[in-house]
Amino acid sequence: MNILPIFIVALLASFSHVNAGDFCVGDVSLPAGPAGYSCKSVAKVTVNDFVYCGLAAAGNTSNLIKAAVTPAFAAQFPGLNGLGISLARLDIAVEGVVPMHTHPAASEVLLVVQGTICAGFISSANKVYFKELNKGDIMIFPQGLLHFQINSGKGKAIAFVSFSSADPGLQILDFALFANDLPSSIVEKATFLDDAQVKKLKDQKDDDKN
Ligand SMILES: *[C@@H]1O[C@H](CO)[C@@H](O)[C@H](O)[C@H]1NC(C)=O
């Protein structure tokens, strides 16, 4: 008996199995777990799952920080699911700032495409690395470290940032400290700030909401 045809069928079956693992477009109708979304059926995947046009438009910078972060993470761009990469667009108006924040799950690379940005991060040894960046410059922010971007030029600034995760996460330090539900007395103990300082910082957050 010739086993070659069976061998070829088995080989093709194993290849088609490999192909099914090429990507895992996220099914955003189901909740995501730590490993991301579950995969949308390959039969339903089209080229449009791998294209995202949401970063073409500027974000709205009419807010407290005069800046906008427009994400293309797995939730917005499900084609990224499982690939360990993502992007976002930063629009920073004159005098705007992306305040001190971390991405718990990803390192970041920033590319300035317009204007001038003073960007920096703080190592876990509390050493500061910051520099003024111009159009075409790129800077790295290692995973989990606190960092910021300030528009230090005379016009609006635009940058694109890429991440080593499809879901990098974002925690803004001031919101974490002063926009939480902890009683002020505990915030004061945990931060060494006095009552007036904590109330002032909490009010900033309320102004932003109003
Ligand atoms: C930008 O946001 C502000 C404040 O929320 C709002 O008043 C304004 O209409 C928005 N502009 C655009 C173009 O969406």
UniProtKB/TrEMBL annotation:
Localisation: Secreted, Extracellular space, Apoplast
One Pfam family here: Cupin_1
Disulphide bonds in the chain: C24-C39
The organism's place on the tree of life at top rank: Eukaryota
Record-level Gene Ontology MF annotations: manganese ion binding
Binding-site positions, oxalate: H103, E108
UniProt-annotated binding residues for Mn(2+): H101, H103, E108, H147
Gene Ontology terms: cellular component: apoplast
Family matches, as SMART domains: Cupin_1
Domain Cupin type-1: 53-199
Signal peptide residue numbers: 1-20
Keywords: Apoplast, Disulfide bond, Manganese, Metal-binding, Secreted, Signal
Stated family: Belongs to the germin family.
The protein, known as: Germin-like protein
Organism per entry: Carnegiea gigantea
